[in-house]
From TrEMBL:
<dbReference type="InterPro" id="IPR013822">
    <property type="entry name" value="Signal_recog_particl_SRP54_hlx"/>
</dbReference>
<comment type="function">
    <text>Involved in targeting and insertion of nascent membrane proteins into the cytoplasmic membrane. Acts as a receptor for the complex formed by the signal recognition particle (SRP) and the ribosome-nascent chain (RNC).</text>
</comment>
<keyword id="KW-0963">Cytoplasm</keyword>
<dbReference type="InterPro" id="IPR042101">
    <property type="entry name" value="SRP54_N_sf"/>
</dbReference>
<keyword id="KW-0378">Hydrolase</keyword>
<dbReference type="InterPro" id="IPR036225">
    <property type="entry name" value="SRP/SRP_N"/>
</dbReference>
<feature type="binding site">
    <location>
        <begin position="110"/>
        <end position="117"/>
    </location>
    <ligand>
        <name>GTP</name>
    </ligand>
</feature>
<keyword id="KW-0342">GTP-binding</keyword>
<keyword id="KW-1003">Cell membrane</keyword>
<dbReference type="InterPro" id="IPR000897">
    <property type="entry name" value="SRP54_GTPase_dom"/>
</dbReference>
<comment type="similarity">
    <text>Belongs to the GTP-binding SRP family. FtsY subfamily.</text>
</comment>
<keyword id="KW-0472">Membrane</keyword>
<feature type="binding site">
    <location>
        <begin position="256"/>
        <end position="259"/>
    </location>
    <ligand>
        <name>GTP</name>
    </ligand>
</feature>
<keyword id="KW-0547">Nucleotide-binding</keyword>
<keyword id="KW-0675">Receptor</keyword>
<comment type="subunit">
    <text>Part of the signal recognition particle protein translocation system, which is composed of SRP and FtsY.</text>
</comment>
<protein>
    <recommendedName>
        <fullName>Signal recognition particle receptor FtsY</fullName>
        <ecNumber>3.6.5.4</ecNumber>
    </recommendedName>
</protein>
Amino acid sequence: ESLDQGLQKSSETIFSKLSKAVVGKSTVDEEVLDELEEILITSDVGVDTTIKIINRIEDRVARDKYVNTQELDKLLREEIINLLAENNTQDLLDFELPADKKPYVIMVVGVNGVGKTTTIGKLASLFKNAGKSVVLGAADTFRAAAVDQLILWGKRVDVPVVSHGMNTDPASVAFDAVKQAVDQKVDVVIIDTAGRLHTKVNLMNELGKIKRVMQKFIPDAPHEILLVLDGSTGQNAFIQAKEFSKVTEISALAVTKLDGTAKGGVVIGISDQMKIPVKYIGVGEKMTDLQLFNRKEFVDSLFK
Ligand code: GDP
């Protein structure tokens, strides 16, 4: 399913709300800006980021004196793209990996239920289709279902999964997965981890230990710490992102479940507030439903 199709399912996109708000209005005035503020907030952009965007638009309206409401759509798109560009300095075009980082180690973190396992499976599939070899590490050993799910994805995508079963030491799984990748000259290792955010100190220690054992083989590993967030949970995703950043550093975001929701605005707010690039977008449950984040494409889909 495409991002467009997904977002279109819900009729209330930013664009449709905006169109309604400017009916009978020719210029962008205080009232229109107030409406716009409301629209962005109800689209889950978040208050702080909304205010930032409104201020920028206000500046442009003040500078140009008169702005036709028909131009507001274009203006808003531009400002959102500019804002996204501050953290997403470049759009990823393909799955090329840095040549000096082999294996490229990705540690995936996120609360249970956000789509972490699914995202790992989809990522493995995308890497594999791009001609890369992949090993998965089932280091979310706290939940039996997580280990089973990852093994299932491994079978589906046809990539090996290193697993020691439930309740085993996550760091030992990570150690073996990275070791196997080094020994077999594999391109990418993706390590699943537990999402027990409610026991922060335990999780922090666990993730710390996973990192340390990886670094026995690869001093600069993990090369990517990917936080998976459920885009359909709106403000909750914000809170999770903030809480996770207390437990570990995060270098990239994957936002899932953006199909069937018009609330893609959460992506804009989280990227802006966390100062972390969005790398992947989940748009469905199937293997192919993961996309590389592209700023313009994304903003266009919000305005369809
Ligand atoms: P985990 O607990 O974080 O590992 O979550 P799972 O990967 O098991 O996913 C939880 C549920 O969300 C499953 O039913 C997935 O199929 C579903 N899911 C994951 N990503 C997406 C997505 O992008 N869109 C939709 N609609 N469902 C998703």
